[in-house]
Amino acid sequence: MVFNLLTKIYHLESILNTCYKFLDRAYIYLDAKKKNEIIVRLKLKKKSSKKALLNLQNEFMNELLYNALRYHISNNNRKIREYIIGRAVYSAVPGLDTLSAEKVLNFEEDPLGIAVPWEEKHGKNKKNSV
Amino acid sequence: MGKTKKIQFNKDIYSSSAIKNTIAAFESFAKFEFRDEKKYYIVRFSSLSGGDGARTLLDEICNYALAARKKCQ
Questions:
Q1: Given this model, what pLDDT does residue A67 score?
Q2: How close does chain B come to A51, measured CA to CA in Å?
Q3: Measured distance CA(B4)–CA(B14) in Å, rounded
Q4: 3-class secondary structure for A13-57?
Q5: φ and ψ at residue B21, rounded to 5 degrees
Q6: Residue from A10, A20, A27, A36 whose CB has the most chain B CBs within 10 Å, to mutate
Q7: What is the gyration radius of the CA atoms in chain A, in angstroms?
Q8: How many other C-beta atoms can be found within 10 angstroms of the C-beta atom of residue A25?
Q9: What distance in Å separates the CA atoms of residue A52 and residue B7, rounded to the nearest whole number?
Q10: Phi and psi dihedrals of A39, rounded to 5?
Q11: In the predicted structure, residue A126 carries a pLDDT above the cut 60
Q12: Per-residue confidence band for A100, with pLDDT thresholds at 50, 70 and 90
């Protein structure tokens, strides 16, 4: 069975994905004689009736529609997907946000001596004055 | 050796690496000749076993090339 598909409607990527799904059941050959047109040749692996072949073509067309939709959704969401992955990867890398935050929040270091009691700091002076 | 068969793989659809991978995969079944022409990659092959298997081999090569095309993306 041979039929043509317009690449203006179905992108080549969605046609290839659809073909890939049918490789176990059919022999598929693709060609392109004209621009924006893909010729699909479908042949069932097992010997079967014309009706079975027609059913396969109908199934192929349905799957193609599904893959075309997936392709469009994937294209529309590309930017937001990249942003989400970018954020996830960025936050997973140690030494960027996490390390600096830990350094700032480490209360045990106390470089300004805030945690030192007043008596320890000024005890000597107090004794001297009394 | 069987009769020589020819397959034309359109360059807009199939990649050369996919075709080369396909030829490598089927090398034990047939003798291949690969040519790069203007719009097509031309693959000629003659089945080593002969008989009626050549047609099936051709179909299998087409399928493999399609799968390889997807892998080589």
A1: 94
A2: 21
A3: 22
A4: HHHHHHHHHHCCCEEEEEECCCCCEEEEEEEECCCCCHHHHHHHH
A5: -65, -40
A6: A27
A7: 34
A8: 14
A9: 26
A10: -95, 125
A11: no
A12: low
Residue A26, strand partner residues: A44
Q: How far apart are CA A68 and CA A92, in angstroms?
A: 34
How far is A91 from chain B, CA to nearest CA, in Å?
30
CA distance A36 to B46: 33
CA of A31, closest CA in chain B: separation in Å?
6
Predicted ipTM? 0.86
Find the CB nearest B63 among A28, A32, A38. A28
Q: What b/e readout covers B20-41, taking b as 16+ CB neighbours within 10 angstroms?
A: bbbbeebeebbebeeeeeeebb
- DSSP lists the bridge partners of residue A28 as A42
Give the three-class secondary structure for A122: helix
Nearest to A27 among B13, B63, B69 (CB): B63
pLDDT given for residue B34 in this prediction: 92
What type of residue sits at position A91? S
Say how far apart CA B22 and CA B40 lie, in whole Å.
Answer: 15
Q: Model-level pTM greater than 0.90?
A: no
B37 in contact with chain A, both atoms CB, cutoff 8 A: no
Question: Is the pLDDT at A124 greater than 70, yes or no?
Answer: no
Which residue has tokens 């799904």? A21
